[in-house]
């Protein structure tokens, strides 16, 4: 059913204060989950990102690519191993991570943005020494924790009107390619850029008191509440690192971090440009 013209105008008027609030500010979008593999959702995310850029928001898209890496490793006959939710990355796996993330996945996203009328530049953490990392755990091999971020390559793209599309591979002090968790990298990049907001796309509605009950969504959380939520078991399993990354981003100076359900078409716009928002917001 077509939306009446008056209703369309009211939607735009409602969005105007938020567009003004974010104009000229940096917003980091961490892109992952089902929205990366579902073609319709992928186009919805890219259209949201393009719109943010067109209304004067300095948007940075940071992406992972775990399923694509697993698929390529399988094709090459290399077994995927995980410890604590992180991929064990030996030298052969490291080469595949670099090839897939900084290559096919990154350039496919850049091509899609271009196809949909946006302007994007694909970069990775190796470019310009943007992401320096140190080994997270000897058991994990070439898996890195971010030790420093040089945001000049990102700012160069932003200053010239491009959307930076960032693949999260970095380098250690010995110039080894390091596999960096995309949530961790996005939080570090947002902090280094002094971002107004970081939007973490997930495959659930947000932080919930009961994962089986969507109505138990927690709309707002202060970062001081996070340790207690983990201790009480409200935050469990794979949600723990995501919640910690949101809290870390705020600690690094990001005004707010939001965890949203990337399975909802145009969830980014609903979160940023409407009164009700969506998902869970973390703030200081």
Describe the structure.
Strand 1, helix 2 and strand 2 form a beta-alpha-beta unit. The protein has about 280 residues and is an alpha/beta fold. It is about 40% helix and about 25% strand. The protein has a single domain, classed as Carbamate kinase (3-Layer(aba) Sandwich). The strands form three sheets. Strands 5-8-2-1-11-13-14-12 form an eight-stranded mixed β-sheet, sandwiched between helices. The longest helix has 25 residues, at about 90-115. The chain is globular.
H/E element order: HEHEHEEHEEEHEEEHEEHHEHE
The level-1 CATH class: Alpha Beta
- The end-to-end distance, rounded to whole angstroms, is 42 Å
CATH topology: Carbamate kinase
Helix content: 40-55%
In the CATH hierarchy, what is the superfamily? Answer: Acetylglutamate kinase-like
The gist of it:
The protein has helices at 5-22, 39-54, 66-75, 91-115, 152-159, 182-193, 226-231, 239-251, 267-273, and strands spanning 26-31, 58-63, 82-83, 86-87, 120-124, 131-135, 143-149, 163-167, 169-171, 177-180, 197-202, 220-222, 256-261, 280-283.
